[in-house]
Amino acid sequence: MKKGGSAVRALALAACIGMFLVLLMGATVTQTESGRGCGDDWPLCNGKFVPDYTITSIIEYSHRVVSGVVGLLILAAAIAVFLRVPRRAPRLYSAGALFFTVLQAGLGAAQVMNPQSDAILALHFGISLLAFTLTLLTVTSVRAYFRGDRSIEAGKPVTGGFRLAVWLTTLYSYVVVYTGAYTSHTDSGGGCAGFPLCNGQVVPSALEGATAVAFVHRTAAYLLFAVVLALALYTWRTYASRRDISNGAMWSLVLVVAQVLSGGLLMALSGTNSYVLGTLLHTMIISVLFAVLSYLSITVWEAGRADRR
């Protein structure tokens, strides 16, 4: 194990935890409709350093403050990685996290000063999700470096087809994330009442407006469950000897099941004071699921490279 590196690992972990918090706070802003809580001022809140004590202004301004602090943490972590970790992957991850954090901040400022369409707003969460995922990958890669090179576990060679399946699943999960964010921003969650059917039907008869948006998201989520289930079963049958890959597939399945169930919980909480908490749980699970699938994508890529040597 390499000596030192405690500060680098601590910074990377703090940045990752902070970015996860930013994700949840952003979801809270959306669900409480607090995006205009500070008017059209940025970075101030209604022209003040300390905003008026209204719920919406406090939620929005708290999100801005925490995002700013986390942005500085990500910058510090990136600098530390470039100075102390002479390996390409951690540098790419930390630089990518910084890039998407700055991009998200810019989009947030643009939204405040020049309101955007729901389709563009839905991208905001996706960009934050990429920043969070890259901070998590930074944590794992920095940890691996200071512990010494982790060799890829031996086992059955990973085929190109399997790698492609994992990558496409990860990409598709991002599409599902976008449909969920769009559903949230258009306030279309109530378009499909009940669970697992939509308004008591397999395909709603009135497929328009909020019902169409919610139905598309549900269908996409159910398909993601089916794809991850098939991927996990194939992985356990074919690559059981490669624990890094099989464990990634297992956690992906656990999380996608939890995600579907949390969607059902949202329907049960609809119209109650606990609905926002349900949306935060939904956000947490999909964020971790995408991060795990991203980690699995990199793992199968590294395994494929190792198999070819």
TrEMBL record:
<dbReference type="Pfam" id="PF02628">
    <property type="entry name" value="COX15-CtaA"/>
</dbReference>
<feature type="transmembrane region" description="Helical">
    <location>
        <begin position="92"/>
        <end position="113"/>
    </location>
</feature>
<dbReference type="InterPro" id="IPR050450">
    <property type="entry name" value="COX15/CtaA_HemeA_synthase"/>
</dbReference>
<keyword id="KW-0472">Membrane</keyword>
<feature type="transmembrane region" description="Helical">
    <location>
        <begin position="119"/>
        <end position="139"/>
    </location>
</feature>
<dbReference type="InterPro" id="IPR003780">
    <property type="entry name" value="COX15/CtaA_fam"/>
</dbReference>
<keyword id="KW-0350">Heme biosynthesis</keyword>
<dbReference type="GO" id="GO:0016020">
    <property type="term" value="C:membrane"/>
</dbReference>
<keyword id="KW-1003">Cell membrane</keyword>
<dbReference type="GO" id="GO:0016491">
    <property type="term" value="F:oxidoreductase activity"/>
</dbReference>
<feature type="transmembrane region" description="Helical">
    <location>
        <begin position="219"/>
        <end position="236"/>
    </location>
</feature>
<feature type="transmembrane region" description="Helical">
    <location>
        <begin position="65"/>
        <end position="85"/>
    </location>
</feature>
<protein>
    <submittedName>
        <fullName>Heme A synthase</fullName>
    </submittedName>
</protein>
<dbReference type="GO" id="GO:0006784">
    <property type="term" value="P:heme A biosynthetic process"/>
</dbReference>
<keyword id="KW-1133">Transmembrane helix</keyword>
<keyword id="KW-0560">Oxidoreductase</keyword>
<keyword id="KW-1015">Disulfide bond</keyword>
<feature type="transmembrane region" description="Helical">
    <location>
        <begin position="160"/>
        <end position="181"/>
    </location>
</feature>
<feature type="transmembrane region" description="Helical">
    <location>
        <begin position="248"/>
        <end position="269"/>
    </location>
</feature>
<keyword id="KW-0812">Transmembrane</keyword>
<keyword id="KW-0408">Iron</keyword>
<feature type="transmembrane region" description="Helical">
    <location>
        <begin position="275"/>
        <end position="301"/>
    </location>
</feature>
<keyword id="KW-0479">Metal-binding</keyword>
<dbReference type="GO" id="GO:0046872">
    <property type="term" value="F:metal ion binding"/>
</dbReference>
<comment type="pathway">
    <text>Porphyrin-containing compound metabolism.</text>
</comment>
